[in-house]
Design a protein that fits this description.
- It is a single chain.
- By secondary structure, the chain is α/β, with parallel strands linked by helices.
- Helices cover about 20% and strands about 30% of the residues.
Length: about 180
């Protein structure tokens, strides 16, 4: 599991970056033209060939997101990228999927400090994440995995397996 790092989203430079990226996302979502999609793709640290993003996309910083080749992100997806998010080649991200790297203190007293913590999320190649699935901070998903609709991924997942439920549990291995 990736190391948890302290993350201060209140820093002026991060607020400024977030505001700029939110504007780019809003512009794309109002008018998902080829030009606005091209502009959206420029905010990522890497955006592979033949990446397509549907309307309703949302992220905070963009430069912490790496998209492999032939990634498809369906409607209304949210990537909270205080930490890094890496999505491998040929991944299919279903509608309303949330990929989260940010967390807060569990202790009510500690939470009053308004500190954030982030952990990277790594998604292997040829992964299919079903509609409304939630990927929590610090998770690594192996190549070829399938996450069923509305599943909540709370821990690392092996390659070439089907996962379902909350928390997501292995249903079965997938044969080629």
């Amino acid at each position: 599991m990736p190391k948890m790092e302290q993350f201060d989203s209140r820093l002026p430079e991060l607020r400024e970056q977030r505001n700029r990226v939110h504007d780019i996302c809003r512009q794309f979502n109002r008018s998902p033209s080829k030009g606005n999609l091209k502009k959206l793709k420029t905010i990522f640290s890497r955006c592979g060939d033949e990446v397509f993003i549907e309307q309703g996309f949302y992220c905070d910083y963009g430069d912490r997101i790496r998209l492999g080749d032939r990634v498809y992100i369906n409607v209304d997806c949210t990537l909270l990228d205080g930490g890094k998010i890496a999505i491998g080649d040929d991944c299919l991200i279903g509608p309303k999927v949330q990929i989260l790297t940010i967390n807060h203190a569990l202790s009510p007293k500690e939470r009053l400090k308004k500190e954030n913590f982030c952990q990277d999320v790594i998604i292997g190649k040829n992964v299919w994440i079903g509609a409304s699935a939630i990927i929590l901070p610090g998770v690594t998903i192996g190549d070829g995995a399938v996450i069923g609709a509305a599943s909540v991924v709370t821990r690392d997942l092996d390659s070439n397996c089907l996962y379902l439920g909350n928390p997501a549990r292995m249903e079965r291995r997938l044969d080629d």
